[in-house]
Amino acid sequence: MKLIKDPVHGYLSFRDEELAIVDTYAVQRLRRITQLPFVYLVYPGARHSRFDHSLGCMYLAGEFAEKLGLDDYRRRVLRIAGLLHDVGHAPYSHLFETLLNDAGLSHESMTCRIIREDDELAGAIEGCGVDPRDVLEVLEGRADESSIISGPIDADKLDFLMRDAYFTGAPYGIIDTKRIIFRSRLIDGKLVLNINAVGAVEEMALARYQNFMNIYFHHTVRAAQIIFLAGARKLEELSNIPSMSVEEYLSYDDYVIWCMMKRSKEAAWAVERVERRKIPKVAYELRVEEDEFPREILRDVRVVGDKIASMAGVPDDNVWIDTPYITPLPFKGDEYVQFYEEEGGEIKVAEHRSPLLEFTSKIYGIIRVYTDQEYLEDVRRAAKKYFG
């Protein structure tokens, strides 16, 4: 047994055979993939990695398994699924998820492919006495316990909300995780919470909303990400993601991409701007609900950017439009937060109305128009006129 000191959860314990999985190349690579790309430009402490988060998710998955009374084998499966759930992330985490999406892929699909095709990783899982197919079943949403790893309330969300708040210093990650875990049950393959835990769930929903609006969607962070992604798209190597072998895909991390871009004539400008913190400024911002997004933005954001640039009389490549939106925390529909109550020893699903959870179950977005300092006033006037 080995102990690892985690600043969020305290001491985390690992069996020797679990450490063999942690020490695989695929998992160690996560040390070199930042959890929050370029958030350190605003919150200097936000230097944590996908590796840190994966250890925390593994711990919380094990806590859920223990509270739910799962047997030792299923607890091992869940802990491994928590550890590996992000192993398929591209460099720079969700920033480069766009490149995967362009190829019809996702980090979830890459995670499953790596578990299937990486012999070192599969061998380490088997060394824990666990069949990799059982881990895949959880990660692909086919197991009764899948919602513990990916669901309306899961180990993944609980860890990253607390961890991101801790490392940024933002005060939004205060969540009563223990109450959520202790009050949870598995009913018909869904993670269901006791009605007495509504307050903790609302607390988590609000923390999630605040993290998105104040950390993930901070205007300077998003501007730096836009610049860097535009430069990265110039790298020919990244256009080959669909045809990469698992070995080649795992060879890419933040450090490799950074160095490739610095050496590239087409991409070096983006790195230099981040290095010097020469970040575009917000010329115009509009906050909208799902049904208020302008249709032109949804069709092709680049066309709108070109129109605004033309109206402002500035070069097309000096106007950027960003449309981040908070995905809903499901409270209604097929996949949503469910509650139960106990009466006379009987457990039944409980109906509950929460204005706060209803609010966070909606898509809420931002439209931002960015430009460089010298064009700020011209672009601001043009954007105001365009959006009315």
What would your notes on this structure say?
With 388 residues, the chain is an alpha+beta fold. The chain has one domain: Hypothetical protein af1432. The protein is built from 20 helices and 10 strands. The protein has helices spanning 16-22, 25-28, 50-67, 72-84, 97-102, 107-117, 119-127, 132-139, 146-149, 155-168, 177-182, 198-216, 219-232, 246-250, 254-263, 268-275, 295-299, 301-312, 355-360, 376-387; strands at residues 2-6, 10-14, 184-187, 190-194, 281-289, 319-322, 325-326, 338-343, 346-350, 364-371. Strands 3-4-8-9 form a 4-stranded mixed β-sheet. Strands 5, 6, 7 and 10 form a 4-stranded antiparallel β-sheet that branches. It is globular. The model has no long low-confidence stretch (mean pLDDT 93).
Describe this protein with a few key phrases.
Hypothetical protein af1432; 49% helix; globular
Describe the secondary-structure layout:
Blueprint: E1 2-6, E2 10-14, H1 16-22, H2 25-28, H3 50-67, H4 72-84, H5 97-102, H6 107-117, H7 119-127, H8 132-139, H9 146-149, H10 155-168, H11 177-182, E3 184-187, E4 190-194, H12 198-216, H13 219-232, H14 246-250, H15 254-263, H16 268-275, E5 281-289, H17 295-299, H18 301-312, E6 319-322, E7 325-326, E8 338-343, E9 346-350, H19 355-360, E10 364-371, H20 376-387
Helix pairs in contact: 1-7, 3-4, 3-10, 4-8, 6-8, 10-12, 13-16, 15-16, 18-20
